[in-house]
């Protein structure tokens, strides 16, 4: 079991690094990540079908340009709906023209009545990552439980999306932490070998 203080220290450091990225650099980074994900999709590295993503919180990399491009490629795209802490996320169909609602943490999510999806491809937010495919989130475990649940039901490709500055030498991990299949930043695309 990892020392909780080590994870907290890594989270603090990761927030400082991510928050230090200039606002003027963020849109270009999101566009580059979109292009890298489009390249993975066109090269056949990403599954066709339902894709899940996230609505950016605070200074997270904005994955919406990549999600919109996936929609253009024919994917049905969903955004998460947060349930009680300790549960897996549910993904509802996202249409940028449809009404949104403020969710559990004030994050925008598709309103009630939108279709529920089971993503085969999941763009995952993170605070920090390392080159072995481990990620550090906010600590509630939503994405680890979601990936575990999705993987129990079949294959899913997890793509961590972040700014390159969020890389750290080694993410402190526990037995329940789920690894990513790919990490995409504005600087590079990393395929994780398991």
Molecular structure report:
The protein is α/β, with parallel strands linked by helices and 194 residues long. The chain contains four helices and twelve strands, in the order ααβαββββββββαβββ. The strands form three sheets. Strands 6-3-2-1-7-10-11-12 form an eight-stranded mixed β-sheet, sandwiched between helices. It has a two-stranded antiparallel sheet with strand order 4-5. It has a two-stranded antiparallel sheet with strand order 8-9. Helix 2 runs parallel beside helix 3 (64-72). The radius of gyration is 16 Å and the shape is globular.
The run of helices and strands is: HHEHEEEEEEEEHEEE
Q: What structural category characterises the helix and strand content?
A: alpha/beta
Beta-strand percentage? 15-25%
- Helical percentage: 25-40%
**Envelope shape:** globular
- Average pLDDT over all residues: 93
What order do the strands of the largest sheet run in, or round the barrel if closed? 6-3-2-1-7-10-11-12
What is the CA-based Rg, rounded? Answer: 16 Å
The biggest sheet, with number of strands, parallel, antiparallel or mixed sense and barrel status, is:
8 strands, mixed
Q: How many strand segments? A: 12
Poorly predicted regions: none
Question: What is the number of helical segments per DSSP (H or I, 4+ residues)?
Answer: 4
């Amino acid at each position: 079991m990892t020392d909780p203080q080590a994870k907290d220290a890594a989270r603090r450091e990761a927030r400082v690094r991510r928050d230090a990225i200039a606002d003027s650099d963020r849109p270009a980074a999101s566009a580059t990540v979109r292009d890298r994900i489009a390249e993975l999709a066109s090269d056949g590295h990403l599954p066709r079908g339902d894709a899940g993503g996230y609505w950016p919180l605070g200074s997270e990399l904005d994955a919406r340009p990549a999600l919109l491009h996936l929609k253009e490629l024919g994917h049905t795209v969903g955004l998460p709906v947060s349930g009680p802490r300790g549960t897996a996320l549910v993904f509802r169909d996202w249409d940028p023209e449809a009404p949104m609602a403020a969710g559990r943490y004030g994050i925008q999510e598709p309103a009630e009545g939108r279709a529920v999806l089971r993503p085969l491809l999941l763009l995952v937010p993170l605070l920090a990552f390392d080159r072995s495919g481990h990620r550090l989130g906010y600590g509630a475990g939503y994405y680890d439980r979601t990936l575990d649940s999705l993987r129990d039901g079949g294959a899913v490709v997890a793509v961590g999306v972040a700014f390159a500055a969020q890389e750290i030498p080694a993410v402190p991990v526990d037995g329940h932490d789920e690894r990513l299949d790919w990490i995409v930043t504005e600087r590079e695309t990393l395929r994780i070998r398991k």
